[in-house]
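Problem: given the chain below (272 residues), write out its structure.
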Amino acid sequence: MTAESRINSLETSYGRLAWRADGPEGGAPLVLFQRFRGTMDDWDPTFIHALSAKHRVIRFDSAGIGRSEGTVPDSVGGIAAVAAEVVQKLGFNQVDILGWSLGGIIGQQFALDFPNLVRCLIVAGSSPGPIADGPQQDPRVLQVMTKATDNDERDFLFLFYPETETAVAEGRASLKRIESQPNKGPGVSAAGFMGQIKAISTWQGVLGRAKELKLPILVANGAHDVMLPAYRSYVLSQQAPNAKLVLYPDAGHAFLFQVIDDFVAEIDRFLA
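Solution.
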């Protein structure tokens, strides 16, 4: 199926949650964990199409997000628990996970809390937690990403792409593809936004337990990420015992929508 796959509903203890499936059945499915203030409709459809050529791809709106009922848990562990119930209710014994940004944080916590449910983990544009040394987040990021109103194109280009002609052009093309999808669902509500903020702000990170993350991990980022600097991806790759690090030049936080062919090929090799 394509990125215009049917919207399904799943009854859970958190309420009825919305989910979609793309790609061929068989093997461990690849479950996507979305970014802060993102829904399952905020994945670039070209990325979904490429990813689902070889993999069964599952994306969903967590509790209190987008089309789903319920309330956003106020901890990263709570959000990971929602994802675990989704995996189990869908009948999967084991899955691969691709988490982007906040989704990468949730993916790391998921792997610690539910190790029997995850085979391989992909951490994209994310962080293992607070890191005092090395490059820090651009000071403008917090103000832009927490605006009370929805972010506009200018905000997304600043947050997600380097200020080069090529990167900006690719960023605009990706944003256009996302916004032009038919039947796009609602965005993250004010209550959902606040729940995610609380979860992020209270998360202690995984560095103290990173040695426990013995599963295969692919850590990837754009070399010029202003939100979660690539140095944090490097730190995670050094602490987790079976991690591979890939950085993309002239790319930022949304590198996965900028270098789609290269990153999907990397994912294919990793999961094979």
